[in-house]
Amino acid sequence: MIFTKACEYGIKAAVYVAEQSMNGYRASLKDISKEIDSPEAFTAKILQTLVRNNIIISVKGSTGGFEADLKKIKKTKLIEIVLAIDGTLHEGRCVLGLSKCSEVHPCPVHNKYKHIKKDILTMLEKTTLAEMSNSVIEGLSCLRN
Length: 145
Fold this sequence. Notes:
The chain is mainly alpha-helical. It is built from 7 helices and 2 strands. The chain has helices at about 5-20, 30-35, 40-50, 70-75, 80-85, 110-125, 130-135, and strands spanning about 55-60, 65. Helix 1 (about 5-20) crosses helix 5, helix 2 packs across helix 3 (about 40-50) and helix 5 (about 80-85) crosses helix 6.
């Protein structure tokens, strides 16, 4: 259950937009792209997906940009962002890439990794956009190195 590059950027973009919204600002495409270290054109496509999935809001005009509804930030779960960008969790995929890995025919790490996958799924279902954004605001985490 590894995120695609688009999903990684999507999570970082959503966190950055939420962080800016929580501080009373609207984020531009250029600022988001710079902050998450992603090409602008690729970031634009990811942001469109986040807007279509009602995770963030696009505001048109000279003072436009991207923002997040403050009430929705508290309810939006990380899994919603992952599903919006990747469309699936790839949780059935074998960690070693075997096509027929299962309980009946497990790969060498199947039985150990299945518990990790369960923990990851639980984290995705419980972690909110507000939690992630607050972590950045408080300096406990960062969006780039």
